[in-house]
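We modelled the chain as a single entity of 278 amino acids. Its sequence is:
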Amino acid sequence: MSRRSPIDRRALFASGAAAALLAAAGVRAGPLPVRGGKLRLAVSGAQRSDSWRAGDGLFMQVARQGLVYEALTEVAANGTLRGELASAWKSTPDARVWEFELRKDVRFHDGTPFTARDVVASLSLDGVITALGAHRLRIVLDTPDASLPFTLGATPHVIRPAHAPDAGIGTGLYRVTHFAAGQQLLTERVAQHAKDGQAGWFDRVELVSIPSEAVRAQALAEYLVDGADLDDPSALRGFDDIAILGAQAVSRNVATPSDIGAQRPFDNLRAAQRWWMT
């Protein structure tokens, strides 16, 4: 009778805990994600006039919310709300006055600590936003809004550093290494982040601007990129190594979670955070 190797109960517990954590984040059962590799996305909507403040095309939306910046809240692919830079929030019964507790362990990519001052400088709402200390915030709305936490998870409400709002410096999983407006963005994974073990599996992410949908599809078919947004991906349906996921097509070298946000392309802009290399 063969002798079985002893079970490493600590490793078993760790892997089980990791699986449970990833399941809560929407990652399907199966091999756990492994960090590494580079994700290359061909993206529409870029303009030469784009900046870290201006430009609302898909390219800059992915760059801001999917890579460089974070918001107070995050809407998961399944529609559930969770905190991102905010750790807790509450409102008055009429949903007009809101208070947010902010995470205390956050730094911008240049090393500057994140505080309520940065939120006050970043948000533009119909109301008054006041810092109640370094990590506490009050928002008094002109009109009550029970959906404010969901609203604050949208791209227009990403948080920039008050000292450098136009510099492409955020608190997100990826820092900028090169940005050419309307052409290309190169980023690299930050060394440590609060989402370690839950998101941000790629070492590097590249966005390349390709205005023509036909050329984006061709770039994917020729293995020049790993994914592309496409209004009509039918031209790629005959490729066994390319998956069609709604308004996007992705190489099968890229693994995706069980839940994929479909309101906007690239997993509601967060593909670079939620997907990984097989």
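As a brief sanity check on the tokenised model: The radius of gyration is 20 Å. The chain is about 20% helix and 25% strand.
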